[in-house]
Amino acid sequence: MEHKKPDRVPVMCQLALGHYFLHCGYNPSEIWFNSETFANAQVELQQKYNFDGILLNLPGRPPGWKNNLKSYKKIDNNEHLLWKSGLDTVFPPDDNPQTYQPEQMPLERADYNTVDIDDPATYRLSGYVWNTWHAPELWDIEPEADLCDTTAYPEWFTGTLQKAQQLAPDISIHAEVFSPFTHLMELFGYEQALFALLDAPATCHKALAFFTRMVLAQVELYAGYRPDAILVSSAFAGAGFISRQMYEEFVAPYEDQVYKVIRRFGIKSYVHTCGAIGDRLDLMSRTAVDGIDTLDPPPLGTVHLEDAKSKYSHRFFFKGNLDAVNEMLNADDQTFEQAVKERIRIGKPGSGYILSSACSVAPHVKSERLKKLAALAEQFGKY
Prior knowledge:
By secondary structure, this protein is α/β, with parallel strands linked by helices. It has one domain (17-61, 118-380): TIM Barrel (Alpha-Beta Barrel). Helix content is 39%, strand content 15%. It contains 13 helices and eleven strands. Strands 1-6-7-8-9-10-11 form a seven-stranded parallel beta sheet. A four-stranded antiparallel beta sheet has the order 2-3-4-5, with no helix packed on it. The longest helix is centred in the middle third of the chain and has 23 residues, at 201-223. The chain is globular, with a radius of gyration of 20 Å.
């Protein structure tokens, strides 16, 4: 991340939560809702795959979360958690959970025609939790609490980070926050959020400014425990969702504020944006972000690693570029190994490259394949 030559090309993949569910000996609900269990699962698979770092892509959890349960049962390998609030969370054995209103109705979203960012009652809806908590309710937080204020957050918010640092003090540990734009998408729902960019740009800008202050509060909380990096998850800001012009207006200015504060704390930042981002790497380079994650290659994205390195190796560290579907999940062994060796060949010169899947490692990618990443980096990635 500092463009200093390590002993070899480092290896660090973000694993889909379904991968932890399948490959660790815990119930999915315990991994999702228990800070200590999630930290244990992260470190277990980091050691199993010989990764050089881990990304804590869930925040801490309230230790008494089970007190909010009305019932728990398993149906056809799915966990069903019924909450006292009336919400229902369903865990498949290999995928992220989904939370519903009673009778499996989808969660309500805010209406961009009537939302008032100055009035929390118009957007703090049952089950809607800013895509920050991944939990059915804002436990331990007063309904009118100012989430832009660090004192509004309970101590357990940083619990997973603290536990992982205790378990694995010698590896690179990264925290994660969500981009203001991701919060906007979650506020209105993805389809309606895209309409809002066209129909109500002023409302979107006001919401993005609010979300930026909220994200900065979370950055400050994490920074107090000195993670090695903070990832800004901005999955929906690629060309598959918004134009280059929209990226320049609605994404880059707000994310840049986040990157600058992360830098002020002396911590590295990087951004995770899925899909087609080849047409906006130059816009990313004008922000204060230190690194770029995913770098999806064709056909999933539009980034050729060799081109990105030639133009921006002086500006960014890069993480990713292995096609998570066609080169990792569905490829035969020869295709997989050739793809890995090619990324090492391109990424290694001048350092600044972390070998990784572009997006998250799919739940059903075999463990042996992930172990092979570090072995190939050891064989072909030494400096």
